[in-house]
Specification:
about 140 residues; mainly alpha; two-stranded antiparallel sheet; 2 strands; about 5% strand; globular
Length: about 140
Amino acid sequence: GFKSGLSSLKFANNLALMGVVQQPTIESLAEWVIDNNDLGCYHGLTSLGFSLPLASEVKNRTYRRAWIQGALQAVYDRLKSILSVDELRRYNFGVIFMKHLLCEVLQWKSRLYEIVGLPQCVVKTTTITNRTYTR
């Protein structure tokens, strides 16, 4: 349904891109990631090397939010600093763009391993909540 998960986020993001509602903030995305740490955005951050606490490991939501928000802010700031003004405009750079990019990190990482022909033993696979993620 639309109460939680990816469907509600996609719906809200589409409304934001149409200008019906405000664009999401890093704070609001961090809150969403806390509740959806089995999806691509969280795994994109961890694949980039961020060590983020899971709900099963740390019950303090404020603590988890601070860690996730810090990681999101670091990625956002880095992207904003390396993309040209033209690229920022062309990609409609913002929190939504960054979220989409993070969700694709693991998929592209495994594709790049296939393209350059690295041995499969180099790729680490983790199964979380019935999904397999390749790092």
